[in-house]
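Fig. S4 source data, part A: sequence.
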Amino acid sequence: MSNVQSVDPEMFELIGMEARRQSRVLRLIASENYASAAVMEASGSCLNNKYSEGYPNARYYQGQKVIDRIENLARERAKAFFGAEHANVQCYSGSPANMAIYLAALGPKGRSMGMDLAAGGHLTHGAKVSFSGKFYDVRQYGLHPETHRIDLDQVRDLAREHRPGLIFAGCSAYPRVVDWAAFAEIAKEVGAILAADIAHISALCGTGLHPAPFPHADFVSTTTHKILRGPRGGMVLCKKEYAKKLDSAVFPGLQGGPHNNTTAAIAVALKEAAQPEFRQYCRQVVDNAKALAEAMMEQGFELVTGGTDNHLILVDCTSKGLSGKELAVAMDRAGLICNYNKIPNDPRSANDPSGIRMGTPALTSRGMKETEMQAVARLIQRVARHPHDEDKLNTIRNEAEELCRSFPVPGLTI
């Protein structure tokens, strides 16, 4: 980054600090990962310089022959990876992608259903603080009080009573398999459009390690970072009957010109995802999550649903006499990075909840496997024993950094 260093030494130093941090800590945030060097090169390419309102062969600016080929390549690769009939790769991120689905399916207002944020859903599934809860008449479903799995009987009863035009399935903090077929049956019964939000599990769906949302869902949204290891962006896939409405919702409905550098980086990530070794990576992500879950329970932690089927685990910290925020902050000081998170029926607030959420995509990208997950769980247990002892936390941080040195960060030169 010699040019940044020359033009803006202060920013150069800050970026370097962040690169060193990413290299030296154990990143357990389920929504974070390491993009490849190829993805980051495409993200920082000259494509940043081109403005391209519209779609391939229907632009409002000239000079689009190369850009059209780039976007078509990204769309075709997305369709192939996810088994979709149509793909829009212009969304700026996951929340705008979901907003596009609302606009395409319901217009500016209407009734929808989504998973409660406190149960593991996303803000855009109907939370009152989100546009989805402010602009739409939303009914929210949750989890079974005993199993903490999605309560499909509740989903069905709510759908029959309120007759929503759109039902969102999918979640951001749910460690088990989502039954798309069951959701599709409910949606069909009440005449609703079904949208599947697979932002957290997109790569697992595309590689067959989690059930695929198509052909059950009408729309499928995802981010392109997280486990997919692409740039920070979003896309929506749909059945061909909704293609025109979707494209109109994205542009001109919600945004102007796409970020062509991001589009190219998405295409690169999808090419990487189509390789056999990417499925092996995804398999290892799940194996590592299961190993971490088992190791955490061996250390006396309680897990929501008692384990995981995907890349993340939800930990109830109350058995350790700690809040989730207390443990997450202490872990951060010790070089283990997660996020505090509400758990089902959490008596605490979102600002200081009872749980933490952890995932294995980033550690797996570094090459770590089951043995390392056991070591990570032991480090977390030691943090939980001494959350306010800075000397002990510094010792753990040094051990975490030593583990990191054995597994270099992909895509970064430190």
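Fig. S4 source data, part B ends here. The first strand starts at residue 26 and ends at 27.
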